[in-house]
Amino acid sequence: MNQISLSSIVNEAPIVAIVRRPKVDSVRCIEHLFEHGIRLVEITMDTSDAVEVLECFRSRVPANCLLGAGTVTDVELAEAALGAGASFIVTPNINLDVIRTVRKHGIPVMPGALTPTEIWTASKAGADFVKVFPASAVGPRYFRELRGPFAKIPFMASGGISLENAAEFIKFGVDALGLGGGLIPKSNDEFDQCAALAHKLLDVALKARESR
Q1: pTM for the structure as a whole
Q2: Which CATH number is 6-211 given?
Q3: Of residues 42, 124, 164, 171, which has the active-site annotation?
Q4: Strand, helix or coil at 53?
Q5: What are 92-103's pLDDT values in tens digits?
Q6: Is 55 labeled as catalytic in the residue annotation?
């Protein structure tokens, strides 16, 4: 397993690609993302071959990248993902048992939350980043308000993030952006356009961070 930290990658490349039930080969898709600058990839555990993909990449992830598991809603899924070699865990909700399980393994965890109380609970339970989800339901300005009381909690915004709104989320205090959608090819003809989007997103996010 790579020893590079999640936070150090976010500082350099703040995009988390979400691979959920892709219509193209999962392994090829993840390799393509890593080749085009995306350094954090999560494969969701509702993807049929998620465990096999994690096992396949156990010794193949580039040294400056991490492959994690997403949609980890219970301890059983967490144990399966960790056993297969996931380097970080992402959840859509707060499950304190999942957070405790992941932390026992010394692996970063990014639990999902939305309200201030949920965000505080996730942070206090040991979240490395709190995934605010669904971010599109509250919009970028929500994070500006959160930064008042929660100035030191690292945030990932996920759900409804796009090239068009990425900069605004970053400017209002988001540390990382989680998105699948346009980053994940829907056919073998879409790999090039997805690669172009990956480069654009990284550029937009880093420039937005510099301007805040």
Answers
A1: 0.96
A2: 3.20.20.70
A3: 42
A4: helix
A5: 999 999 999 999
A6: no
